[in-house]
Amino acid sequence: MRALDCQTFAGTFALATRDAGFDLVGKRESGNFGVPMYLDNAHLLGIDPATVQVGDADGWVPENVDFVFGNPPCSGFSLLSTCINLAGHTDGRAEQQDYRGVHSPANAGMRNLIDLAGSCDPTIVVFESVTGAFKQGRSLMQ
Known about the structure:
The protein has one domain (2-73, 106-141): 3-Layer(aba) Sandwich (Rossmann fold), CATH 3.40.50. 28% of the residues lie in helices and 22% in strands. It has helices at residues 12-19, 35-40, 42-45, 108-120, 131-135, 138-141, and strands at residues 2-6, 23-29, 52-54, 67-70, 82-85, 95-98, 124-127.
């Protein structure tokens, strides 16, 4: 079965997928975090480095695959996700804003992975997220 990696950073999830018998045909990543290590280990993953695309999700090319898998960046359901916003304060004080919830911009990674998977029409889609995504983000997951 053919598999497409989406946002697994350095590649541990990809290695486990390859070890399970899948043929890795590409990788899509929105940032460069972990990509150099992934490319250094391409020979272990059995992946052609030319199939790794790094950049805005709008430019990701879908593949005809059976399996799309990923570990999108920390979602808006992580208890560690916060944002400091200085805008609107003339005195320079920082205001901490809540960066969590279904509508958090931090959930873009999950949406990007699902959008890519929808374009690939795989049989299986799997992604890992924090526990809060199931508890607080069920409406987004559905």
